[in-house]
UniProtKB/TrEMBL annotation, chain A:
SMART domains referenced in this protein's UniProt entry, alphabetically: acidPPc
Source organism (scientific name): Marivirga lumbricoides
SUPFAM superfamilies referenced in this protein's UniProt entry, alphabetically: Acid phosphatase/Vanadium-dependent haloperoxidase (SSF48317)
Pfam families per the UniProt record, alphabetical: PAP2
Listed name of the protein: Phosphatidic acid phosphatase type 2/haloperoxidase domain-containing protein
Gene3D superfamilies: 1.10.606.20
Domain (Phosphatidic acid phosphatase type 2/haloperoxidase) ranges: 396-504
InterPro entries found in the cross-reference section: PAP2/HPO, PAP2/HPO_sf, V-haloperoxidase
Signal peptide from the UniProt entry: none
Length: 513, 327
């Protein structure tokens, strides 16, 4: 009897153990490629962002399909495919024939890895990450939201322009893929990528590796390994010959060089202004409005995050002041006092739902940031609507251009109005989210999210109402978190929509619609 | 009588039952480890209640830390300043058979930072995890000038409120189910000194965050966080005094996670962290000779070394009361 009782109890616990044991924790989007909704024969004529047109980058004409060199390449490919290892096969499956998804994920991973704010030194001072000494400490970069959105914008724009160029040459030379030339070759992917010169995947691999290596210099080796694996999987998929890949690499190299040249002179290197400049912005706001934001960390950070990010060159807006929002309520005004009461009420009544919303959208330190979150949504829509690589690149490009412009506009407002955070002015106020090191008005989450949502609503009109609702939830999440005023969120949402319109207008006229 | 220990980040809880009669008391040892949380260690020890006894325990403890180990780097952090944790635990222990006891308990925990601090974060509070456990005595043997007891405990704990584990260092628990398997050996000399050793394997499941993405040496596109399982080892030396009215002991507890990542620089901990710690403690339990069934306990322990763990000091007090629940 005693033994039976014990056996029963033990077996019950064993069942619980087994039940709880297995959970899949995905490190990337588990898709295995898909058939594209369209092939885009006219894509080479679309208007790129950085270059004049698809033929602005030159590549050599391919060898004809009846040439000895071509036939030799076909034989080499068959030999290589016959010797594929399991790791090779896994890589082919992983990369898919829309590898922009994977490079976007790699970018998000590096953003999350480097999104760490430098802590204080022993003496209470702070050391800034320095690209001239990337190992630090602190390591370079600090991939905060302005840094992150800029990484994503340059990455996506280079990818998009590179693919317009690739599409131009695909339909100029019209060289069929090896699996069409030789029926004994079976491609690992769906067979609607039937023109292989140049390889669009190789454009993506090389352009992405180059842009990300510039942005994350300590990851050069990691990124080179990714590029090598990706390029090899392009060959082993049976969809490209080595000459297709080499031509794609040429385009990828050229377009990323052009993108990085713009990045080098866009003003970002001055964004983390010295203390004197930072102090002058606070003084100007004090004189103009009678308030200024103060960092309340211990020890106090001498300069806020990127005070001059608002002066970085925008993609679609000529002058940032065109998009500057109306002033916030004056400190002590009735509207201000009403918001103080609202924030106190949220803080005193943290509901399960408000906490969930605050955390879902927090995307704070150590994560892929709000722009990263919107890239994840874009990725899922791209797969849901089976976009081809060119349209995928276009989606990411306009999404990230609009969000970067949104960020620049938001930062202009932040340091022009220099509005205090709730914890600075409400005595004893406590938050459930971390208060960032920059002024309150307007909310970065709100602007990034509204800008991102507008672009996604334009590209995926079926999703318009849901993405706009998400953007509003992302905006109010900051108020629930206790780190933003209600008007930071509502005005920020309007600002994001306004800024996005400039990029969407550009998109409407690029020839893709 | 029962007893309990709680260490902040790791709720660890431990219960000893002293038999009602001194005659039996001198013969029995038992230990029970209850519950879960951030790290785990396992206290060991304890006495068995006989098949008619039930024991209630109410315990309060206070923990705090100024410094913590970020990986292996010990640091302070003025964003959180000093973090305080107050816990109240209620627990029941039931003698089912003379060699089989059942335990159940749940703590209420409140955390917050002292002022001033740079982060202005709200603390957290709530009921943490329900722990149930069974302890079985498989060995109880007279050996020369002493007596050797061997016990095994199996425990299970699970969150009973919707607290957020991904809100460190204020989270009140790890937010995961936990299974504990524990073996205890205790040797009591006729001089009333005793030595006890215990080892535990703690299987932990997954904690659910309220976000869809986190970084753990790579991207994770899921709210589920794999909480590392752990092993612990404990060594105790103790003595019974005043005809078994007072028990005192010194203990060492070591805990090691079997996987996990380090806290990243100047970043909050998360449930996926690899947590190691070495903790030393003192404990005393007094049984009122004239108030049958009533006992008081007090303890203090401190984490003296670790990895991804706070340098936590804990002080606690409790009362135990037992009686026969059947004839």
């Amino acid at each position: 009897m005693k033994n039976k009782t014990i056996q029963l109890l033990l077996s019950g616990l064993t069942l619980l153990f087994l039940y709880g044991c297995e959970k899949e924790l995905p490190n990337y989007y588990k898709i295995e490629g898909y058939e594209f909704a369209s092939t885009e024969p006219d894509g080479g004529n679309w208007t790129p962002i950085l270059i004049e047109s698809g033929d602005a980058i030159s590549i050599p004409a391919p060898d004809p399909v009846n040439s000895a060199s071509y036939l030799q390449e076909l034989e080499d490919l068959k030999t290589a495919m016959a010797q594929m290892s399991q790791a090779d096969a896994n890589a082919v499956t992983y990369w898919t024939q829309n590898p922009i998804i994977r490079w976007n994920e790699i970018a998000l991973e590096l953003i999350a890895k480097y999104n760490l704010i430098p802590g204080p030194n022993e003496d209470g001072s702070y050391t800034l990450p320095n690209p001239a000494n990337p190992n630090g400490p602190p390591a370079f970069p600090f991939a905060h939201p302005p840094y992150a959105v800029r990484v994503l914008a340059y990455l996506s724009v280079a990818q998009y322009d590179g693919l317009i160029s690739a599409w131009h040459y695909k339909y100029t030379y019209d060289r069929s893929a090896p699996f069409i030339q030789d029926e004994s070759i079976v491609t690992a992917y769906n067979d609607n990528s039937d023109i292989s010169y140049p390889s669009d995947g190789a454009v993506i691999a090389t352009a992405s590796r180059k842009v990300l290596t510039q942005m994350f210099p300590l990851e050069a080796k990691y990124l080179a390994e990714k590029e090598t694996e990706h390029l090899r999987s392009l060959l082993l998929s049976g969809a490209h010959l080595q000459s297709d890949i080499e031509a794609g690499k040429l385009i990828g190299d050229a377009i990323s060089t052009i993108a990085l040249a713009r990045a080098a002179s866009d003003g970002m290197k001055n964004a983390q202004a010295p203390k004197a400049v930072s102090d002058s912005l606070a003084s100007a706001a004090q004189a103009r409005f009678g308030w200024h934001w103060v960092n309340v960390e211990i020890p106090k950070r001498p300069v806020g995050l990127t005070p001059l990010f608002g002066r970085v060159q925008m993609w679609s807006v000529e002058n940032v002041e065109q998009t500057r929002p109306i002033p916030p309520p004056a400190i002590g005004s009735a509207a201000y006092e009403a918001d103080v009461s609202q924030l106190k009420s949220y803080a005193d009544n943290v509901t399960k739902e408000r906490r969930r919303i605050a955390n879902f959208w927090q995307d704070g330190l150590g994560t892929y940031t709000p722009p990263g979150h919107w890239n994840e949504f874009a990725k899922e829509f791209i797969v849901k609507y089976r976009l081809n690589p060119l349209r995928s690149a276009r989606t990411f490009a306009y999404l990230n251009m609009a969000m970067m412009d949104g960020g620049i506009s938001c930062w202009d407002a932040k340091y022009y109005y220099h509005y205090p955070r709730p914890i600075q002015v409400i005595e004893g106020f406590k938050t459930i989210a971390g208060t960032p090191n920059f002024p309150s008005y307007t909310s970065g989450h709100s602007v990034f999210s509204a800008a991102g949502a507008e672009v996604l609503a334009y590209i995926f009109p079926q999703e318009a109402s849901i993405v706009r609702a998400w953007a509003e939830e992302a905006a109010i999440s900051r108020v629930y978190g206790g780190i933003h005023w209600t008007f930071d969120a509502t005005v920020g949402t309007d600002q994001g929509k306004d800024v996005a319109e400039y990029t969407i207008n550009k998109a409407r006229n690029d020839g893709a619609d | 009588m029962c007893r309990i220990y709680q260490v902040q980040e790791q709720k660890l809880l431990f219960l000893t039952l002293v038999p009602p009669s001194k005659k039996i008391a001198s013969l029995l040892f038992a230990a029970m480890y209850l519950s879960i949380s951030l790290q785990a260690q396992t206290p060991s020890d304890a006495l068995m209640m006989n098949s008619k006894q039930i024991c209630f325990l109410l315990d309060y403890n206070y923990s705090s830390f100024d410094n913590y180990w970020e990986g292996e780097l010990k640091r302070e952090n003025q964003t959180i300043a000093m973090v305080k944790r107050n816990s109240i635990l209620s627990m029941v222990a039931v003698g089912i058979l003379d060699n089989l006891n059942f335990y159940a308990g749940v703590p209420y925990i409140k955390t917050e930072s002292t002022h001033p601090n740079g982060g202005k974060f709200a603390g957290a509070s709530g009921f943490q995890d329900l722990t149930v456990a069974l302890k079985y005595r498989w060995l109880n043997k007279q050996l020369g000038n002493g007596r050797l007891a061997g016990l095994a405990t199996i425990g299970f704990s699970i969150p009973v409120s919707q607290y957020l584990p991904d809100y460190m260092p204020y989270s009140i628990g790890l937010g995961t189910p936990e299974l504990s398997y524990r073996a205890i050996l205790e040797c009591r000399h006729n001089s009333d000194w005793y030595l006890r050793g215990a080892g535990t394997y703690l299987w932990r499941g997954y904690a659910k965050a309220e976000r869809e993405y986190y970084y753990n040496n790579g991207s994770y596109y899921t709210p589920w966080m794999d909480v590392p399982s752990a092993i612990t080892a404990e060594a105790v030396i103790g003595k019974w005094l005043f005809s078994d009215a007072l028990q005192i002991e010194l203990s060492y507890l070591g805990s090691r996670s079997l996987s996990g990542d380090d806290i990243r620089p100047y970043n909050p901990p998360q449930p996926t962290n690899k947590v190691h710690m070495d903790r030393v403690g003192v404990f005393a339990h007094y049984f009122f000779p004239k108030l049958k069934g009533l006992g008081f306990l007090a303890y203090h322990n401190r984490i003296v070394a670790g990895r991804n763990v706070p340098e936590m000091n804990t002080t606690g007090f409790g009362a135990t009361y037992f009686f026969n629940y059947r004839k």
